[in-house]
Specification:
The chain is of the alpha/beta class. It has two domains: 103-372, 3-Layer(aba) Sandwich (Aspartate Aminotransferase, domain 2); 375-412, no CATH class. It is 34% helix and 9% strand. The chain has helices at 17-26, 33-43, 99-114, 131-141, 155-166, 186-198, 221-230, 253-263, 282-285, 331-334, 357-373, 375-396, and strands at 53-54, 96-97, 149-152, 177-181, 207-210, 235-241, 267-270, 289-292, 306-310. α1 packs parallel to α12 (375-396), α4 runs parallel beside α11 (357-373) and α5 runs parallel beside α6 (186-198). The longest helix has 22 residues, at 375-396. One of its GO terms (cellular component) is cytoplasm.
């Protein structure tokens, strides 16, 4: 470390881009707000990732979407008169990572040049195609090992598969109910009700709903813990979202999971709006299982494969009930075609069929970008942008607009 000489001024430590952005947010000068926004863009060390995505363009800078003719999309094609849209729909469908095309083309070439040998040869043999996305997701969701994560099926299918293992109602003891929030995503409502009916029970009296708070928050921690304590003897499974799809509020996962573990009640999470949005430490928090889609924040395309997580304590629990298929069988003997099912370690033992290599290609393309950017940096930038937007709203529309999302939120405002 350089020690300044006597009388020499000590050099000031250069502020990070985040410190500059945070400071700017709290000392906003409204007469120079455009200059400030441009300065924040200049400080942004993640700005280069914008070039990694295809951003839709308007047909004309003069026309908006509503004014476009109905015989064609307003963002079709390239040209000097085409302006990028302001895209705020990532919580519905993320944008295309440009690397996805190359990855899909690579597997097409492997298929064309190798045929069936592509299963065991090439840069990414299809026999172990699920390994790389799982490894890239360890830090993303806070797993302990890559075998705790797998990409397969779709979100609702994976939730069904996990519930086969963890929703084991016992009418003799009275533990038959599933705890969930009010205003749950419709697919979660459907799958929970169908699971209950599958066990010969009635959804009308087998679902415990956590009431919303007086402010309309549906993931109120105190309400969840109070309901859990009151109904503990009747609850067979907890199924909650990590981030609520309507309100954007974040579940206090660590606190709720800790209480669930104390009471001996399995807890599963629907992380559709959480993965790629907030930091997660599923292993540390003690979540039994979690599932998420990849077409939103993970930018993997419409209908992309879904992710699933199983806690490390269940890694060798081969006795867990499950619906089995050949791709979940241990690799060493999979092609021996034996009739007895021997599950792979962890959540990989819940796979049914081999995943589409073309559906996994965009997932890997996106996950490599997340690894390069790092979730801590992405979350910090997300919070900074959210604070900036909230300040703009409170300054320009103090009486017309109210922020409904609580402070415990992800990137939605």
């Amino acid at each position: 470390k350089e020690i300044p000489k006597k009388g020499q001024k000590k050099k000031k430590k250069k502020k990070s881009w985040l410190e500059n952005m945070t400071e700017a947010n709290h000392t906003l000068e409204w007469d120079s707000r455009r200059r400030l926004a441009l300065q924040m863009d200049e400080w942004d060390e993640l700005a280069g990732f914008r070039r990694e995505f295809d951003i839709p363009r308007y047909t004309s800078v003069q026309n908006n979407v509503e004014e476009e003719p109905s015989d064609g999309p307003p963002w079709n094609g390239e040209g000097s008169d085409r302006q990028e849209v302001i895209y705020l729909a990532g919580n519905s469908l993320g944008l295309l990572p440009r690397r996805a095309r190359q990855r899909i083309a690579s597997h097409l070439d492997q298929w064309a040049s190798m045929g069936v040998h592509g299963h065991f040869q090439g840069d990414e043999p299809w026999f172990a195609i699920e390994d790389r996305p799982a490894q890239l997701s360890v830090h993303l969701v806070g797993a302990e090992k890559a075998t705790d994560v797998v990409y397969m099926n779709s979100l609702s299918v994976n939730l069904h598969l996990m519930m086969v293992a963890f929703y084991q109602p016992d009418p003799s003891s009275g533990r038959v109910k599933i705890l969930m929030e009010e205003k749950a995503f419709p697919s979660d409502e459907h799958l929970v009700a169908s699971q209950i009916r599958f066990h010969g029970l009635n959804p009308e009296n087998s679902i415990v709903r956590v009431p919303a708070s007086s402010e309309g928050h549906v993931l109120c921690t105190s309400a969840i813990l109070e309901t859990l304590l009151q109904e503990a003897s009747t609850i067979a499974l907890i199924l909650l979202p990590g981030v609520h799809y309507l309100t954007g509020e974040v579940l206090a996962i660590e606190e709720v999971a800790k209480e669930a573990n104390r009471l001996g009640i399995p807890i599963g999470l629907d992380l559709a709006h959480a993965v790629g949005n907030i930091e997660l430490r599923l292993q540390e928090w003690g979540v039994d299982f979690a599932c998420w889609c990849t077409y939103k924040y993970l930018n993997s395309g419409p209908g992309a494969l879904s992710g699933a997580y199983l806690h490390g304590r269940h890694r060798h629990a081969s006795e867990l009930p499950r619906f089995a298929g050949w791709w979940g069988h241990e690799r060493a003997s999979r092609f021996m075609m034996e009739p007895t099912f021997v599950p792979q370690e962890g959540v990989r033992g819940f796979q049914l069929s081999n995943p589409s290599v073309f559906a996994l290609a965009p997932v890997v393309a996106s996950l490599t970008l997340f690894q390069e950017a790092g979730m801590p940096r992405l979350v910090r930038k997300s919070r900074s942008l959210g604070e900036y937007m909230a300040r703009l709203l409170s300054h320009f529309l103090p009486n017309e607009v109210a922020v409904l999302t609580p402070e415990a939120r992800g990137c939605q405002l």
